[in-house]
């Protein structure tokens, strides 16, 4: 289903803005071509990934994600696009605005629905406003505000965007927010994990070695599978682990099994799975990372186990992926949202960014004041973290 986000001008020099409630209505090749020329592409912004979120039932209206994908066209040419969702909650976003929603409610106003530009359940920085050029990107920004007004949304939020996204929205008067994640970066030179450990301070190195030794002493060995090497049975086992870990925390898993089926079919080259086996050869845990060979970047995503083994989580989710990245000469491993404990494993603080537009002028002013104070505190926090880096000298 498509509709214009706002009345579109009759002048032939001005583009058509369109809204689709199903990402599969958009052309994959054209979307992915825009992504490929963006400053910070990632596999999560490929249209196949976003289609799978919806077709699997993971990000759909029933779970609070109503697709409103915005696209800008010059005739038959797609010149800009972004994944947008109308939302009635703030789950699965990782940029927290619960306090804003509470403030609206206490003043008798509705914060939901809101319009969100993001990859569902995926806090990975990257380009969000895919565009041929700055002018096309500015049409997206205008279209988002027009769409939010048509849908009577309180606000629009663009999460984990790149620098071009930030500039386009700042020029339109949006509010900027900064948070922090923890990433490892390398120099592209292959090396062993043992060599990498030698670059860490002695205390940090000994702790990691002790944790890995305990896992090994429990009889655990890891099997690494990439792309087509991951069988359907492996995917089934991984999903069992993933589901059990969510249930152990009394939560339902965000992603359906069909989502991973689609990933195996449509984007197999973008996945590496680490399977832990015990001394009897039985599988006991699995972790999954996404990869981008062009960028030499890896992204920690999901993990789970069928029984508890001390320190297995750290080994499966950090040490095995880091070792794989090092051995293959990759440049970056992103450990996901939050977690100061990742610093002790060599992942350093990196600022992430989001942009926000609020329709209510008084609340916009209040949030702007809050973000200014939060931003100063975040800068101090990042500076403090950087003073406690875990390497002997400059990480290599």
Low-confidence stretches: 6-11
Mean pLDDT: 94
Report the CATH C-level class of the largest domain.
Answer: Alpha Beta
Which class do the helix and strand fractions yield?
alpha+beta
| Shape field | globular
| CATH topology name of the largest domain | Aminopeptidase
Radius of gyration: 22 Å
CATH superfamily of the largest domain: Gcn5-related N-acetyltransferase (GNAT)
- Alpha carbon gap, first and last residue: 50 Å
Q: Total number of β-strand segments?
A: 16
Q: What portion of the residues fall into strands of 2 or more residues? A: 15-25%
CATH architectural type of the largest domain: 3-Layer(aba) Sandwich
**Strand line-up of the largest beta sheet:** 3-6-7-9-16-10-15-14-13-12-11
The largest sheet, given as strand count, sense and whether it forms a barrel, is: 11 strands, mixed
Total domain modules: 2
Protein described:
The protein is of the alpha+beta class. It folds into two domains: 2-181 and 350-386, Aminopeptidase, CATH 3.40.630.30; 187-330, Aminopeptidase, CATH 3.40.630.30. Helix content is 36%, strand content 25%. It has eleven helices and 16 strands. The strands form two sheets. The protein has an eleven-stranded mixed β-sheet. The chain has a five-stranded antiparallel β-sheet with strand order 1-2-4-5-8, with helices on both faces. β13 (283-292) and β14 (297-305) form a beta hairpin.
